[in-house]
Specification:
The complex is a heterotrimer.
Chain A lengths: L4 E14 L4 E7 L11 E7 L5 E7 L9 E7 L7 H6 L6 E8 L13 E6 L3 H13 L6 E9 L6 H10 L3 E10 L13 H8 L7 E6 L1 H13 L7 E5 L6
Parallel strand pairs in A: 7-8, 7-10, 8-9, 10-11
Antiparallel strand pairs in A: 1-2, 1-6, 2-5, 3-4, 3-6
Chain B lengths: L7 H5 L1 E2 L4 H8 L7 E4 L5 E3 L4 E3 L5 E4 L6 E7 L4 E4 L3 E5 L4
Antiparallel strand pairs in B: 1-4, 2-3, 2-8, 4-5, 5-6, 6-7
Chain C lengths: L26 E2 L20 E6 L5 E4 H5 L4 E8 L4 E12 H5 L10 E6 L4 E5 L9 E6 L2 E2 L9 E3 L12 E7 L28
Parallel strand pairs in C: 1-5, 2-11
Antiparallel strand pairs in C: 2-3, 4-5, 5-8, 6-7, 6-11, 8-9, 8-10
Classes of the chains: A alpha/beta, B alpha+beta, C mainly beta.
């Protein structure tokens, strides 16, 4: 693939969209945009007037088919350094320094085939959404399933888009599980992802599934262990751990 | 990793994907696809799949099988240090 | 490493009321950040031991039960981590290195100490910066047993140096002829590490 843009560049915020109480999506126009592969991320760097700098990585939410821009979906972490700034201070027209796209390990593209099983918790759904948006943009018929764990229905990012995607595409199904409180009348999963749930979800796909797991480290560790115990070939599983946010 | 030992330290652990940018600074290319063979246990893993401890004074990348330190990276204002004695080799795919 | 100044980003702050207690370049925290170079070791107490060896007449080892019987002291100290956080008034209970030294005869050549821990971590401190109450092996924090995630069952605490010198999960002190760089000192960190002189990196 082409070399990523290694230098920092100033992206311009062209849109900010609230997704849930705690998450917002930022659209950045990049002067040196290059097509990413779904699953990759950009590093974001902030510099204070006294020279103090801090950096964080954010997964790209948008499909590479959207030329010239990237969308980053960011969860606001209460005692964080960068996310509160992005949420509370940044407005459209502001410039943010970014570098990327980065991370060829955790990527999926249509030519890799499927069937595709995406497992995410909390903001771990972001790179998985890029994969689904890429799949949709290519009008791919590769069977795909998303198993998405959230605390409550108010925490589900991209809910409307996922519902519409599933309604319009027989090859895609979104399965939600709620760990703190399910919506009234909910008949679906209502617990942390466990071996039994994974067994059911992966059943139609079997051992051929390409699996991507992303989210808080404890969720990823638990899912990866369960998948290994189920005997899934390790080469078919890719993981990305986000650290300590809880789901 | 044994989930019975789960604690804040485990929760803070990430993986090689999180340090892809730093590895790019060191090696000049995406290293998440590079495969490291652990000098301690001889198992191989993509650098994107290594356990990464990133909140220390530096970054420590560990073997997901045996937890031995495979590589360490330190950034100072004037230099970038990398030490990878814990890897028998790094195997990079040709582009 | 100049960057585009991010409009409205102020970085970390140093509250005026504690300004004189924060070493240069540090900011104040009120929680206790967990920083680690590896997974938390979990040595059961019945397998735990603490050893003083190297350039000593005769090495000595304490079991956990034996270690608990040693006289202790409480310390309330400010701690500075090289990653720039400082936490004030941390209350510890532990055994001073002075007490431990009563059990061994250190060779005159043994002027330096390497602290070694479960998980392979090491760090180095001159012996004369560990005596006279400057260092202790702590097993309680805030009147409770030290949590594994913060270095329990026992860790070294050397409050006058950056906190990477306060080795978590410590299992022993080795007396050395040379000041041998430990885990982080080998990789660009200052061999001494005084926060008030901002000795973060080698060459500082």
């Amino acid at each position: 693939m082409a070399q990523p843009v290694l230098e920092w560049q100033a992206g311009t915020v062209t849109a900010i969209r609230p997704e849930t109480r705690q998450t917002k999506s930022f659209t950045l126009a990049l002067p040196k945009w290059m097509a990413h592969r779904a699953g990759m991320h950009y590093d974001v760097r902030l510099t204070a007037p006294d020279g103090y700098q801090t950096e964080r990585s954010y997964s790209i939410a948008s499909a590479p088919e959207r030329v010239g821009l990237i969308e980053l979906t960011v969860e606001r972490i209460a005692d964080g350094e960068v996310s509160p700034y992005l949420h509370d201070v940044v407005v459209t027209g502001d410039q943010i320094e970014v570098r990327g796209p980065i991370g060829g390990y955790f990527v999926w593209e249509v030519r890799l085939g499927g069937p595709l099983l995406l497992i995410g918790g909390g903001s771990g759904v972001v790179p998985l959404m890029a994969m689904l948006r890429h799949r949709a943009a290519e009008h791919a018929t590769i069977p795909a399933r998303l198993l998405y764990s959230s605390r409550t229905q108010d925490d589900v990012i991209y809910r409307d888009e996922l519902d519409a995607m599933a309604a319009g595409d027989k090859g895609f199904e979104a399965l939600f599980t709620f760990t703190r409180q399910a919506p009234p009348g909910w008949t679906g999963y209502q617990r942390r992802i466990d071996g039994e749930m994974l067994h059911e979800v992966i059943k139609p796909f079997g051992e051929q599934a390409r699996v991507y797991v992303c989210g808080p480290t404890l969720l990823v560790e638990s899912v990866a262990n369960a998948l290994a115990q189920m005997g899934l070939p390790i080469e078919r599983i890719r993981t990305e751990r986000f650290g300590p946010t809880g789901v | 990793m044994n989930m019975d030992d789960a604690d804040m330290n485990t929760a803070l652990m990430v993986d090689g994907n999180a340090v892809a940018g730093k590895l790019m600074d060191v090696f000049g290319r995406d290293m998440t696809m590079a495969v490291a063979r652990c000098a301690a246990c001889a198992r191989e893993a993509a650098m994107g799949a290594l356990m990464a401890f990133i909140r220390a004074p530096g970054i420590v990348l560990r073997c997901p099988t045996c937890e031995a330190a495979i590589a360490r990276i330190v950034e100072t204002p004037t230099a970038l240090y990398i030490e990878a004695r814990g890897a028998t080799f790094l195997r990079l795919p040709r582009e | 490493m100049a960057g585009l100044i991010s409009r409205g980003f102020l970085g970390r702050r140093r509250p005026a009321e504690v300004e004189n207690r924060l070493p240069p370049g540090q900011y104040l925290v009120t929680d206790w950040p967990v920083l680690s170079a590896g997974p938390t070791p979990h040595t059961p107490l019945d397998k735990w031991s603490f050893t003083m060896d190297g350039l000593v007449g005769k090495p000595v080892t304490w079991s956990w039960d034996q270690f608990q019987k040693l006289p202790t002291q409480t310390y309330t100290v400010d701690i500075s981590c090289v990653t720039k956080w400082t936490k004030l008034d941390m209350k510890w209970l532990g055994v001073t290195v002075d007490t431990l030294l009563e059990a061994v005869e250190v060779d005159p050549a043994g002027k330096y100490v390497t602290a070694y821990s479960d998980g392979g971590y090491t760090t180095n401190v001159p012996l004369d910066e560990m005596t006279k109450g400057q260092a202790f092996v702590a097993y309680q924090f805030g009147d409770k047993p030290l949590e594994p995630v913060h270095g329990g069952p026992a860790r070294l605490v050397v409050p006058h140096l950056y906190f990477w010198k306060s080795a978590k999960w410590i299992r022993g002190l080795r007396f050395m002829e040379e000041n041998e760089p430990g885990f982080w000192e080998q990789l660009g960190y200052n061999i001494h590490g005084d926060p008030w002189k901002e000795e973060r990196y080698s060459g500082d």
